[in-house]
Design goal:
The protein is of the alpha/beta class. Helices cover 33% and strands 17% of the residues. The protein has an eight-stranded mixed β-sheet with strand order 9-10-8-11-7-12-13-14, with helices on both faces. The chain has a five-stranded parallel β-sheet with strand order 2-1-3-4-5, with helices on both faces. It has a two-stranded antiparallel ribbon with strand order 6-15. The N terminus and C terminus are likely disordered.
Length: 427
């Protein structure tokens, strides 16, 4: 008999892809002077039905506030007076959701600075002071109504990684759980952990969470998926860490719709900075789609000859659409009784392993029994997970230069991915 207690898929998505999260303001602005404040209020007066929320303060005030409240759909920030405005915008990226539309105002009126803000950093628009009502209405107004777009070759989205064990029992799920914990709790980035194995997946179990049917419903009817799925179907494990999983009876068939993985990832990219997927390697279309569509694959092996053989075979898989480098190889349980040495493994692989995690059966076992992340109690495991996170994060601040003399406001050059995940869209 059907289970009437299961939520209808209608409750997992909003019609037309409209964001109806009630905790998310339409617009919040941080402005440091009265003239700009008034220009923004007058210029955007006809664009919003609600009162315009403009607060006094610059970019640093915005960073502090966004760490404590829900990210608005549109955020206006003032970088005037900050001697490292690009570094401040990088800090802001750590505090907001990746699909936020960031509009920047400042004192520097130079085309190079405009390009750095909008192209390299990923902000949607930049206006130099003094602001006028007409300029604000013309250049900022369309973003409030969703009329402005970044261009046909640009899409918003967070970074997705997959964690795959080269064979069963090597600890891939443990690593996926702790990597997601590191991104969401330690680094305070909006993160979701996805476990697409709806029958035997253990990601939620390792954090003492009881999953519902949300993921199964989404995979069966992906046409109903939008960004609101993250709020309705994903379970909160911490302030900025959610888990998207299901736990179905083995007798319930997995009716995955074609293309479900791509639609799900697209929706999650708009809500989260990081998507960590615990993907088994099996001849299942859903799993192979995840492996093709993520930005970075992680292969987990243990120090056995069988794992070496399977790692060599999986490294030959073609790269996915967004993947710029080979899979990151993680050697788990290094030093376990009867296991191969790191040197033996690297000689057999004909390459260096990227991350090695020491064998700590007591600490890892205790964490699983208690339903908590192992990195909270094991320093060695935590160090290895942090190194893995560094390798797969996909961006970093390379240098922090002092303010350049003769340039108003100075700057800090930040290289790497656009901070609000302005990614090239695949054709």
């Amino acid at each position: 008999m059907p289970d009437d207690s299961r939520p209808n898929v209608e409750s997992l998505a909003s019609d037309g892809g409209v964001d109806i999260r009630h905790d998310r303001p339409a617009l919040v602005g941080f402005v440091s002077d009265n003239v700009s404040d008034e220009a923004i209020r007058q210029g955007l007066h006809d664009q919003l039905a609600e009162e315009i929320d403009i607060r006094r303060g610059g970019i640093r005030s915005a960073v502090t506030a966004m760490q404590r409240q829900a990210t608005p759909r549109v955020l206006i920030v003032d970088v005037s007076g900050d001697d490292r405005p690009l570094s401040a915008l990088a800090d802001l990226a750590n505090a907001v959701e990746p699909d936020v539309c960031v509009l920047v105002i400042g004192e520097i009126d130079h085309v190079d600075f405009y390009r750095e803000i909008t192209r390299s950093m990923g902000a949607s628009e930049y206006l130099a002071k003094p602001l006028t009502r007409d300029a604000v209405s013309r250049y900022f107004g369309p973003f409030l109504g969703g009329q402005a777009r970044s261009g046909p070759d640009v899409a918003l989205g967070g970074r997705a990684v997959s964690v795959t064990g080269v064979r069963g029992g090597v600890g891939a799920t443990t690593i996926a759980v702790n990597l997601a914990w590191n991104f969401g709790v330690t680094l305070h980035r909006h993160t979701v952990l996805v476990d697409p194995d709806i029958h035997l997946g253990a990601a939620a179990f390792l954090l003492n969470m009881q999953p519902g049917p949300g993921l199964r419903l989404a995979l069966e009817m992906p046409e109903r998926i939008d960004a609101l799925l993250a709020e309705r179907a994903a379970l909160p494990a911490a302030d900025r860490l959610h888990i998207l999983a299901s736990e179905e009876k083995p007798s319930v068939p997995a009716n995955h719709a074609p293309g479900a993985a791509g639609i799900l990832l697209e929706a999650l990219r708009r809500r989260y900075n990081f998507i960590v997927t615990d993907v088994p390697f099996a001849p299942v279309a859903l799993y192979t789609d995840f492996l093709d569509l993520v930005d970075q694959r992680i292969l987990v092996m243990d120090p056995t000859l069988a794992a070496v053989r399977d790692t060599v075979r999986l490294l030959t898989l073609p790269k996915g659409l967004h993947q710029e480098q080979r899979a990151v190889v993680v050697l788990n349980r290094l030093g376990m009784p009867g296991g191969l040495t790191r040197r033996q493994i690297e000689e057999a692989l004909k390459m260096k392993v990227d991350v090695a995690i020491p064998d700590q059966p007591r600490q890892i076992g205790n964490a699983a029994t208690l339903g908590e992340a192992a990195i909270r109690s094991s320093a060695g495991f935590r160090t290895a997970i942090q190194e893995l996170a560094r390798q797969v994060a996909g961006f970093r601040i390379v240098d922090t230069e002092p303010a350049q003399p003769g340039r108003r406001g100075g700057s800090t050059r930040v290289r790497g991915r656009s901070l609000w995940s302005r990614r090239k869209a695949s054709s």
